[in-house]
Specification:
Elements (H helix, E strand, L loop, with lengths): L1 E3 L2 E3 L5 H19 L4 H8 L3 H14 L2 E7 L7 E6 L5 E7 L3 E8 L4 E8 L7 H19 L6 E8 L2 E3 L2 E4 L4 E5 L11 E5 H12 L8 E6 L3 E7 L2 E3 L30 H4 L1 H9 L9 H13 L3 H25 L3 E5 L1 H21 L2 H6 L1 E4 L6 H17 L3 H5 L4
Parallel strand pairs: 5-8, 8-12, 13-16, 16-17
Antiparallel strand pairs: 1-2, 3-4, 5-6, 6-7, 9-10, 10-11, 13-14, 14-15
């Protein structure tokens, strides 16, 4: 809203804006509910039959969707199937994790076609090395599939830290305003970058435990911790896109030293190393062997080892405390626990987490919130990254020309 001589001026939506909005509504419904029908699209979006027909005609010509076959009928008129044109193009998801860069190629229905991993040594990687690694893996996978980069709608890149356009601020991996502009130029593929917790949350909203959730939080726990916040069914980003840095909120004034350079951060109490340090002490290093260590302590816990029990109890209670702060602050209806370590911990101790949240949160929101385990598994971050090009295609048609030029 602009202010001119003290008079509020509301800019009316142009015809182009309305068409873009209608297109996004219809394409989003098809993508998340395929296979569907035109009548179901109209009922879900509230758009008229004429509008659905006009937009659907454009999408069919664009190559994003296709029609064919009929949905089963209960006795009424048969409804033609509308579905995503899954073979119209490819998408790439790449996630810069704590110990590796995972890269996968998917078709437009998010079926994985090829995958590669690149190990990260010492938990830090420069932008140039990350770019070279991802480029090499994408080229290798495209060669494996016998196709070229022109078939790729886009590459979604999930990274740690705060993403502002092409700049990434991630102190924990040594990125201080790291410039990612030009990423993908060598490949000739558009690249879309977002914080990994946010892109994973989007995947969980589309296909996982956060589907249909209007107010929720997705938490990822590994060596570190992060969160994606869902408000009114959409990701909440904050003023400068830093919302969700939950792992670096504080639950102690004089707690352990964190990778971010400060003390008392949530991740220093609930991350995998925090658990292993509680169990065997900080003198026994698990660097590079955290997954092995977590499986070892879980085995000891199941065998009744008292030290393992104390360590897991401590991490679960601290996690419950940290989650209760999210409950009191955001009043979510659901919290989804994921990340490679969070998923393992939830598989063993979700009821204990729920009990800890209720102990520390205010009675009313603490009693309402439901904790759930991620439904997308350990590769959720790479899938989340792959949703970024699709999201842009849905919202503003980015990359549509690659659909039209793709062989069907």
């Amino acid at each position: 809203m602009n202010q001119t001589l003290g008079v509020a001026v509301v800019k009316k939506a142009s015809v182009k804006d309305v068409r873009r909005r209608n297109r996004a509504l219809i394409l989003r419904h098809v993508w998340l509910n395929s296979p569907t029908s035109r009548s179901e699209v109209g009922a879900a979006t509230g758009l008229s039959a004429a509008t659905v027909t006009n937009v659907m005609t454009e999408l069919l010509a664009e190559g994003a969707v296709r029609e064919g076959g009929f949905l089963e009928s209960d006795g009424g008129r048969r409804r033609a199937i509308v579905s995503v044109a899954e073979d119209a193009a490819l998408v790439v998801g790449a996630d810069v994790g704590e110990t590796r860069i995972g890269v996968k190629i998917f078709d437009l229905a998010f079926r994985p076609l090829a995958a590669r991993d690149y190990p990260i040594k010492g938990r830090r990687i420069g932008v140039a090395e990350a770019r070279a690694a991802i480029d090499a893996q994408v080229v290798s996978m495209l060669d494996e599939l016998g196709t070229g980069s022109s078939r790729v709608l886009g590459l979604g890149l999930g990274v740690p830290g705060i993403v502002q356009d092409q700049l990434v601020h991630a102190e924990v991996v040594g990125w201080h305003g790291a410039d990612f502009s030009g990423f993908g130029d060598e490949l000739g593929i558009p690249v879309y970058i977002d914080n990994g917790a946010k892109s994973t949350t989007q995947a969980e909203m589309w296909y996982g435990a956060a589907r249909g959730v209007e107010h929720g939080v997705m938490v990822l726990v590994g060596e570190g911790a992060g969160a994606g916040i869902i408000t009114d069914g959409r990701l909440y980003r904050g003023y400068s896109s830093s919302a969700g840095e939950w792992g670096h909120t504080k639950i102690s004034l004089d707690g352990p030293h964190c990778r971010c350079g400060r003390t008392g951060c949530v991740e220093t109490f609930v991350g995998a190393s925090a658990l292993l340090d509680q169990w065997r002490g900080p003198d026994e290093t698990w660097l590079g062997r955290e997954t092995e260590g977590v499986e070892a302590i879980l085995r000891a816990w199941r065998d009744g080892d008292p030290a393992a029990q104390r360590a897991i109890d401590a991490v679960v209670r601290h996690l419950g405390l940290a989650l209760s702060n999210l409950v009191n602050l955001y009043n979510p209806q659901k919290i989804i626990v994921g990340g490679w370590f969070g998923d393992r911990l939830a598989a063993e101790s979700l009821p204990s987490m729920q009990a800890a949240v209720r102990q520390f949160a205010l009675d009313q929101p603490g009693g309402e919130v439901v904790l759930a385990r991620s439904q997308l598994g350990p590769d959720a971050a790479v899938l989340g990254a792959a949703t970024l090009p699709i999201s842009r295609l849905i919202e503003d048609g980015a990359g549509a020309e690659r659909l039209r030029s793709s062989p069907h």
